[in-house]
Amino acid sequence: MEKACLDTLKANELQDARVRLTVTNGDGAALPWVEAGGAPNIVVTAVPYTPFTAQKYDEGFKVGIASVRRSRQSVVSSMKSINYLLNVMARMETAGRGLDEALLLNDDGFIAEGGGSNIFFVKDSKLVTPGLNSGIIPGVTREVVIELADSLGIIVSEGTVGIGVIRKCDEAFMTNALIEIMPVTAFSDESGQVVTIGGGKPGAVTRKLMEAYREKVESETAK
């Protein structure tokens, strides 16, 4: 896998890139591929990637609550697949409102995740994030942030997160491998009503985790 990624970067003459691995269950004669098996098919794609600027991290994301919802009971909701229809619909909706990212609720009306990210809230210097049974994809960056928080003595609570946390939290941020840890400084509901978080600036806990995550990335990529 690692060699395939490096070969793809070299072939495309890329330094800063977004690399994606797609692994299938192998060749199958017909739907629904129940007879597929054996050697998997692996596709590596790489495209140029320009990170967000330091100014954007200082400003933070403006996030909108999307009208489409994730199904908490669907096994697909917890799988990272190539089925991005729901995410695309959510992001198109909020982008049309001039926002940076979408926030999806699940079919029970509780907070699930972002259009392509996981979500964390900070209250009284503690982290709160939707649990795995909320209809979320358990992102790798999410897991790393939880580990970093533990190492820094920051308490993390995973579970059912109601929408009321948006008005009660001190800070908020989203995570994925590309944005890493992106502060969220405002939420907008479907009516356009905006709730500002932390006075519109990233908070101390968010910044502490951002620094720890960056140090971890630099340390591991240096190897």
Describe the protein's architecture and organization:
The model has no long low-confidence stretch (mean pLDDT 91). This protein has helices at 2-11, 54-59, 85-95, 140-151, 165-168, 204-222; strands at residues 17-23, 42-48, 61-70, 101-106, 111-114, 118-123, 126-130, 156-159, 171-176, 180-188, 194-196. The protein has 223 residues and is an alpha/beta fold. It is 28% helix and 30% strand. The strands form 2 sheets. Strands 3, 4, 5, 6, 7, 8, 9, 10 and 11 form a 9-stranded mixed beta sheet that branches.
Q: Roughly what fraction of the amino acids lie in strands?
A: 25-35%
Low-confidence stretches: none
Mean pLDDT over all positions: 91
N- and C-termini, Cα separation: 17 Å
CATH topology of the largest domain: D-amino Acid Aminotransferase, Chain A, domain 2
Q: Tell me, what's the shape?
A: globular
